[in-house]
Hints:
This protein is mainly alpha-helical. It contains 6 helices and no strands.
Amino acid sequence: MPNACLSGDLFAGPTPSLARSNRQDLRSAEPILARFQNWLEQSGVTKKTIKNHTDNIAFFAEYLVYYDTPLKRLDAAHSGDVYGFLSDWFPRKALWANTTNMKAYFASFKKFFPWMETAGYVSTETVADVLTTLKEDRSAFLAAVAEC
């Protein structure tokens, strides 16, 4: 008898309509990321820092669109998404996950969410919740990445 866990249906991937929806949601992040990058450039940070922050947020956007529960767009992200990403998904799934890169994500989120508020994408409450999560759960996030 075939193993139900190895059934081809389980590995068929997302349905075409779900895959199309995910790609559209990920494309919706592109203008947000471009505006964030522009803002970083205007703020005078180095090109390397700009690339690091935009790459980090782009990877977070992919997590939201393809792996978060429920799936969502970047402009709908909140503290629970940041918590799930940093406490579980990033340490387990990113081959480059380490303490240094975790701290880089802290810095990226600390820049990105206040900018999102200024740009009108998220509320003041969302920003406060994200910043509180980053502060209060910092040691747990670092421990999670150290375990992997």
